[in-house]
């Protein structure tokens, strides 16, 4: 996906792989994705209606800078 569209895949990409290996029918993937989001969507709608305005989230990452990662060969199994 990165090579073709310069986009990172989201969690649904990995969920779809898991569903496939669990033999869940492909036509059920989208309904499952939607069910997992409905409560969040409903909460957003309720918040927006309570304030009578659309919420435009803004977030800036404030965590640590990039860290060095040890090569796999040097990592312990524990």
From TrEMBL:
It is an enzyme of class 2 (transferase). Its EC number is 2.3.3.5. GO terms for molecular function: 2-methylcitrate synthase activity. Gene3D superfamilies: Citrate Synthase, domain 1. Keywords: Acyltransferase, Transferase. Pathway: Carbohydrate metabolism; tricarboxylic acid cycle; isocitrate from oxaloacetate: step 1/2. It holds the Pfam family Citrate_synt. InterPro entries: Citrate_synth-like_lrg_a-sub, Citrate_synthase, Citrate_synthase_sf. This is Methylcitrate synthase.
């Amino acid at each position: 996906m990165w090579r073709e569209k310069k986009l990172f895949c989201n969690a649904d990409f990995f969920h779809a792989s898991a569903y496939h290996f669990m033999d869940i029918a492909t036509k059920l993937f989208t309904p499952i994705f939607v069910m997992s989001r409905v409560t969040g969507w409903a909460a957003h709608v309720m918040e927006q209606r309570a304030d009578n305005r659309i919420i435009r989230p803004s977030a800036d990452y404030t965590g640590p800078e990039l860290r060095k990662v040890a090569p796999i060969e040097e990592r312990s199994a524990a």
